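Field reference: sequence -> structure
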Amino acid sequence: MKELPTPTLPLSLVTLPRGSLHPGDPGLDRRHLAQRPIGGLQVAWARHEDEVRAAQRLRYRVFADEMGARLQTPLPGHDVDLFDDFCEHLLVRATETGEVVGTYRVLTPAQARRIGSTYSDTEFDLTRLRDLRERMVETGRACVHPQHRHGGVILALWGALAGFMERNGLDTMVGCASIPLRHHGASGVEGGGDAAASIWNQVRRTHLAPIEYHVRPRLPLPLGQFDGTLQIEPPSLIKGYLRLGAEVLGPPAWDPDFNSADLPMMLRIAHLPARYRRHFQAT
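Structure field:
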């Protein structure tokens, strides 16, 4: 089984093996660390390339096959980009089958320095977040298998992510939350650009971050071309972020390759509601 590569660019002071941020005796087989059964689901951090490939296949199924993304990938049937080798990959498997049914990838501050940016930097000017970067992780490529979108998978992912951040002294999470621009399947929303503009107008009134954290899209969604007055619920993932206390950092960027409008979002661990903090600490 092929081990994952460890990027070692000049900014790195120490060469760390993949997974070294996770707890455990160095003598243990790291493939079995952080595997926890939760209600028929098993949560684990990827330790080997074949596990990352399983996550990338799920991402391709959701983003390309379901949402219509045009992915520039070196491996057919997989969603692969240059950030993947620098990220920690969180997996949820169905206990009965072992199939990967949910995934997140996490870019730590150290790895962001190695690669030189975050994925969000390619979509937004994050200058105003510069003072947060030392304790800020980027999460992305979140997706759930269409047959498992009942809430349990995403809660399992969030619980493992919260524990990861607490163990490693990280307090801020940022990322791009996508609004699909075509309605197809459970992860889509009806209305395309009208839906995205309407969702932005809703969340800016209730969940906009303080101005000192506002960011600007590099390719803005042309909001003026759409009807932003529709009463449309945000995608379930965005609703979940908002319930956790996340804030929106500015208007959406347009990602033509992923066929989506991407909202910049930030969650501070200190802002987690008490009920969710208790739930994540118990998992």
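Note: The chain is about 25% helix and 20% strand.
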